[in-house]
Specification:
Helix content is 32%, strand content 4%. With 107 residues, it is mainly alpha-helical. A two-stranded antiparallel ribbon has the order 1-2.
Amino acid sequence: SSEEPPVSSEPPASSEAPANPNPFPAGTVLRYGESGDAIVTLQNRMRELGFYYKNPPSGTYDDDTKRGIEDFKWRMKILNEQQSIDSESVDDETLNKLFASDAPVRN
């Protein structure tokens, strides 16, 4: 029988946090110059994908973070209303794509 196992809404039992979904609450916007745990989470994910290189992360949305976000948004074609890339903020659309299991990895 090729029945699918039932889908559970329980988190996986493993100690590894899933890379997806986006761990931030809906409506989160992270901005250039901000610092804190949310930025560390952002930078750790960016590092996993190759868009940020500092280890440990700085914890501040700094120029290195801004460059990585610009590259990621360019690759994902995430444009603002002016059809340009805003590297100074990260919203739901970007966070959802960044934390997706099929997010691009920069080689």
